[in-house]
Amino acid sequence: MKTLLTITLSLLLTTGAIAQSYLTQARPTDKKEWGYINEKGEFIIEAKYRKCFQFSEGYAPIYEGKKFFFINPKGEKLKTEIDNFKLFNVFGIGMQGFSDGMVPIKVGKKWGYLNIKGELAIGLEYEKALSFDNGFAVVRKNEDFFVINKLGEEFAVAGAVGVKHFSEGLAPYKTLEKTFGFVGTDGKVVIKAQFTSVGYFVDGLAWAKTIDRKVGYIDKKGEWVIQPKFLAAKNFDPESGLAKVKETEKWVYTDKSGNITTVDSDVINNFKNGLAKGKKGEKFGYYNKDGKWVIEAKFEGGRNFKNGFAAAKQDGKWGFINEKGEWVIQPTFGTVKDMELIE
């Protein structure tokens, strides 16, 4: 009996540990306000906000009444040590929420960081502050750039006139001569500035552009894995192992060996969750890394897959499909965003 009870408790704990839920912003067809729906299409936070943003690490930024604040999945406000702060606006995404347990905030002309408890963990002393990634972030103070850890300890980035955020332990930096390289979490140069532009490291590779404006991919030693031969390039998708690159005037895909894949689509997009959104005529669908259409082009609109869901439009309304192209949330909404995992 004791053994059976132990097994039952173990199963319950295991089930609880892997239980997952999802949330996204949604706007009803008859309202201007947004709320949040779950993976069943149910509003769990009513549509009452004019501006709300995606959940990350348990909280979503809200802009209401000329103020920013955070809410949890129950719609409850996070009590913060600092009020009347501003958030960093990420182009194409919206207001930056929590990342790695921290969020940059601006009060007046200075930036600092709140932690997930709403405490001011790093003081308001920077002219610029980027998001944390695996314990490190990039900041600017008195025109100098630093890498900081969560204790607020600073590591100077010498000779940099610009530094972007970290990805996989490396951050792009720019010199006065307008060349780019990468620094590590100690602020020291890992890949010397020798490129005219660079991307971010994803799955061990980053795109880089040479002086003659050719683009290829380098590893974390700065060595070419795919020789510079493209006009433009995007980051690799870890799941499909493909990246979008531009040959002559046409975009195609490359794998990590430099093999090219073309797709019968009027436009091609970056892969997400191993699938990419394509277009045939006026309709949208999704194809896999082999260029095979796995979800036929039959939707009026679509967004990239995220966490196994993709927003799709039919008859002027939005819902969500799964990776088989089946409706998991019927198209009944005026607008929706991407489905975020809430653990």
Largest sheet composition: 8 strands, antiparallel
- Radius of gyration, rounded? 22 Å
Portion in strands: over 45%
Please tally the helical runs, counting DSSP H or I stretches of 4 or more residues.
Answer: 1
Looking at the structure, the CATH topology of the domain at 263-334 is: Thrombin, subunit H
Task: Specify the helix fraction band.
Answer: under 10%
CATH architecture of the domain at 263-334: Beta Barrel
Overall geometric form: flat
Q: Pairing-aware structural class of the strands and helices?
A: mainly beta
Could you characterize what this model shows?
By secondary structure, the chain is mostly beta strands. Helix content is 5%, strand content 49%. It is built from one helix and 36 strands. It has one helix at residues 2-18, and strands spanning 21-28, 34-38, 43-49, 51-52, 60-64, 67-71, 86-87, 89-90, 94-95, 102-107, 110-115, 120-126, 128-129, 136-141, 144-149, 154-156, 162-163, 171-174, 180-183, 189-195, 197-198, 206-209, 215-218, 224-230, 232-237, 242-247, 250-254, 260-261, 276-280, 283-287, 293-299, 301-302, 310-314, 317-321, 327-336, 340-342. Strands 1, 2, 3, 32, 33, 34, 35 and 36 form an eight-stranded antiparallel beta sheet that branches. β4 (51-52) and β5 (60-64) form a beta hairpin.
